[in-house]
Amino acid sequence: MKKQTIKEVLKDYKKVLHHDITVYGWVRSFRANRFIALNDGSTINNLQIVVDFENFDEAIIKNISTASSLKVVGEVVESQGAGQSVEIIAKKIIVLGDNFTEELQSTILQPKKHSLEKLREQAHLRFRTNLFGAVFRVRHAVSFAVHSFFNQNQFFYINTPVITGADAEGAGEMFGVTNFDLNNMPKTEEGEIDFAQDFFGKKTNLTVSGQLEGETAAMGLGRIYTFGPTFRAENSNTTRHLAEFWMIEPEVAFNNLEDNIDLAEDFLKYVIQYVLDNCKDDLEFLDNRFAEEQKTKPEKERAKEGLIEKLQNVVAKRFKRVSYTEAIEILLNSKENKKGKFAYPVESWGTDLQSEHERYLVEKHFESPVVLFDYPKEIKAFYMKLNDDNKTVAAMDVLFPGIGEIIGGSEREARLDVLKQKMADMHVDEHELWWYLDTRKFGSVPHAGFGLGLERLVLFVTGMTNIRDVIPFPRTPKSAEF
């Protein structure tokens, strides 16, 4: 007999009504030695198992408690009680895994409310809670939708290297990779570490982006995307930073900045709509949680709309497209700026916008997602196309409510001479990126792309507020547990 998940049983119960079936799962609760709430992770909903304890060995009944794992054989019947459409009258129960009751008391599996901090400390168990079951099922749906969108639009999935000698961002905050004995590292005559003797024969790092390698693939395949882990050695303990996270980075030959903005908007709306269509139960649970959380905040800080309503509005509204210059004028003249309410005052054109500025534009001024474009060249990366004004680059950021920047991208600089000059101005080593420059020598074309951090999108879609709660095992400063 094919094993059925609880999700399948609840969805198509009419097919198995009055039939014996076998289900597996973990006990969420066991009431009155009669009613077991069984969950197997396939859905947020439990399946009720009705036990006639007179028909079962007392030893089996005693072994059934919260967190026990069971195999249950029984008849599917229409439920007589409220809260579920069907239940199973148990005919056979096998306890697959007992729990250690004394140790269970100190875990998050006990049916009581735990703080998110406590749940983080037991990340190996938090998948079994309703909250994190919902979060990680949604994360799966987002990831699946990413691949689905690009496949439907004739993009090719490219795996770019995790170990690299290139720094795409020029930030320098990279994790080094070495095969040296750290207690006995070879040195040059000048006293520097001699990376020529290392495994790769040069200094290498964990990647911060697959973009540069992705561009080379786009020059032959036309439309590509990467989707993989990236790393930042930024010593930051905020709710928005991780040392290891997942990035989605499309690159498209023959696209300009406007094409890039269109792609970003279409992509985000597709993924969010997919979640709305396929994660109804989990979203309803997260929406209720979001509403309860809002009640604990001061009224002026509460969200204007619920989680599901927010997602529906993002899909329905056209993103507002605003130049950086126009955005600066709005911010300079805002009451918040004039009254000193911004932690980082906006003083002039050229200011690098902070999250508070981005959220002001999205949440208060425009009340819709915003795409900012044409940023000052000094605050953007070397590979972004220089505009004709020689002051700005063809960059774009997509800003979302509650998040700020969710996508950053640009049209890439396709002109070899301009690119080389920008690299020199920003002290980017030409010799390290000789292969990148080659793509501008042999049939260079306009092309564009962007980067989206998966966790930021999952944060937005689930209504969670700490990025450590939307990745299974967060990596942060002084924390590499599990």
Automatic annotation (TrEMBL):
Subcellular location: Cytoplasm
Keyword Nucleotide-binding among record annotations: yes
One Pfam family linked to the record: tRNA_anti-codon
InterPro entries: Aa-tRNA-synt_II (IPR004364), aa-tRNA-synth_II (IPR006195), aa-tRNA-synth_II/BPL/LPL (IPR045864), Asn-tRNA-ligase (IPR004522), Asp/Asn-tRNA-synth_IIb (IPR002312), NA-bd_OB-fold (IPR012340), NA-bd_OB_tRNA (IPR004365)
Domain spans labelled Aminoacyl-transfer RNA synthetases class-II family profile: 136-472
PROSITE patterns found in the cross-reference section: AA_TRNA_LIGASE_II
Broad class of where this protein is predominantly found: cytoplasm
GO molecular function: asparagine-tRNA ligase activity; ATP binding; nucleic acid binding
Listed PANTHER family: ASPARAGINE--TRNA LIGASE, MITOCHONDRIAL-RELATED, ASPARTYL/LYSYL-TRNA SYNTHETASE
Protein name (database record): Asparagine--tRNA ligase
